[in-house]
Design a protein that fits this description.
single chain; four-stranded mixed beta sheet; 10 helices; binds glutathione
Length: 239
Amino acid sequence: MIKLYQFARTWGIPNLSSFCVKIETYLRINKLPYEIEEALPLKAPRGKLPFIEDEGNKIPDSRLIVNYLKDKYGDSDKKLLSLEQQAIAKAYERLLEEHLYWVAIVSRWHYTDENWQTNKQAIFGGLPPVVRDLVAAMTRRKFKGQIIGHGIGRLMHEEIFGLGKEDIDSLANFLGDKPYLMGDKPTSLDASAYGILVNTLGCPIESPLKDYALTKKNLLDYCKRMQMEFFPELPWVAS
Ligand SMILES: N[C@@H](CCC(=O)N[C@@H](CS)C(=O)NCC(=O)O)C(=O)O
């Protein structure tokens, strides 16, 4: 059986990592049986979660995991979407994972001290106190380096959230009143989108990004619908 390595569940959402939510949602959309192994990134083959283990293969990175699962167990996206739709879905996936994700990272790790404490407790709360503070501080420093290297960390908060709001507008306008982003059936793009959106709309990290996303009723309803359909054991509690 596929083993999914991810952070422990918290905040009443599937995972505090949008990429972990993405993979678990993908597995559920495609009805692939799996079991969860709680882990921290230290244990991951490339130092990041999620990763999966399947028949002795360890596969890192949610994009490579989805490719692997599609190759091995079938690609429902290909059956559902035209080449043009697949191209659009890929572009949105990249918007979510390579841009909006970084806005979320800033909100969690480097926006307010309150958010940082909430984030710290959720990720490192299970570690013994002395180790916890040390590992948390080191990881926070590492993320600082990453956001500066990426470039987004060189902008003012107002500018960063302004860019994030553009992504939210695009998603809300693209979703419109469709049940799923690409139409009537869920695809891997919904796994990716729900991962980021539930980590924006459904978790206790406060920011102008969250406030703005909450004004988009179709996105909020979509996110709640995805959770109800694919994680019925987790009733919506936040926002
Ligand atoms: N591109 C990777 C990103 C995975 C990723 O950034 N995971 C984060 C959690 S959301 C992580 O494990 N970070 C740990 C670290 O950088 O130390 C994917 O798609 O899986």
